Amino acid sequence: MSCGVSKAGFLEEEAPRLESWLNKNMNGEMAYMENHFDKRLDPTLLVEGSKSVISLLLNYYPQELQKDTSYKISKYAYGTDYHFVIKDKLKKLLHFIREEIGEVNGRAFVDSAPVLDKAWAAKSGLGWIGKHSNLLSQKVGSFYFIAELIVDLELEYDYAVTDHCGNCTACIDACPTQAIVDPYIVDGSKCISYFTIELKDELPSSFKGKFDDWMFGCDVCQDVCPWNRFSKSHKEPLFNPNPSLLTNSKKDWEEITRDVFAEIFKKSAVKRTKFEGLIRNINFLNNSD
């Protein structure tokens, strides 16, 4: 786990970017992105009296990948849903801080509240935001979760690091749906992850044949990134998948039942798309030839 700290306050640089992104409807049907605009940009509105944002990274790069890649699942969803795993760790950290220092007002956030995780992690020196809009680190690439503790403590603050994407356009060139419309700008409404997880309606026929066999999420922009050569497998047992996830054949996925879905994805983030959603995605891939 990596940790960085920045001073809580209004994110001036992010405000116009977020406004422009929303005005262009790049959030698709993710209407929640339009809510709490001010809170997204200012953590002091989320936690009264907050002075510091403690950003944390937790690696999820798996030890083993799916053997049959006829239907692929994003690596972040292999094991137990990260919301539960990280929230527990953050609560322990906050408890430890209180034991050491005394009464501290703070809240833990794991991608489930209006907090611009990547912006805070970059501000805290944990990496830079790459052209694929993910946080990148020279040491460990981009396969990690980001979480925050926002607290009313004055701390020593870290400094942002420089951008090391250079002239590389690997992620832009590789995106199957051309969702990276400009360097550092991803049109969320064109992203395979959006289609396979967030979109509840029928998948658009104009994208048939462009999903690169992803049935839940997509890792293409991360898989091709040169900095991910340095990814090392995680050491968190809760992120280890149900063995069937790694060994299932094309036929196994096509014939998956509700009970088997419940067993394989018992505590997984894949439950977000529900059984019906996964079947919809599999059928879409099947009819894309």
Automatic annotation (TrEMBL):
Where on the tree of life does the source sit, at the highest rank?
Answer: Bacteria
Question: What GO biological process terms does the UniProt entry carry, in alphabetical order?
Answer: tRNA queuosine(34) biosynthetic process
**Which SUPFAM superfamilies does the entry link to?**
alpha-helical ferredoxin
- Output the InterPro entries linked to this UniProt entry: 4Fe4S_Fe-S-bd, 4Fe4S_Fe_S_CS, QueG, QueG_DUF1730
Q: Which residues form a coiled coil?
A: none
Q: Which UniProt keyword terms apply here?
A: 4Fe-4S, Cytoplasm, Iron, Iron-sulfur, Metal-binding, Oxidoreductase, Queuosine biosynthesis, tRNA processing
Q: What are the protein's GO molecular function terms? A: 4 iron, 4 sulfur cluster binding; epoxyqueuosine reductase activity; metal ion binding
Q: Which Pfam families match?
A: Fer4_16, QueG_DUF1730
Keyword Repeat attached: no
Iron-sulfur: is it a keyword of this entry?
yes
Q: Which residues form the 4Fe-4S ferredoxin-type domain?
A: 153-184
Q: Which Gene3D superfamilies match?
A: 3.30.70.20
NCBIfam families from the UniProt entry? tRNA epoxyqueuosine(34) reductase QueG
Know the name of this protein? Epoxyqueuosine reductase
Q: Which gene encodes it?
A: queG
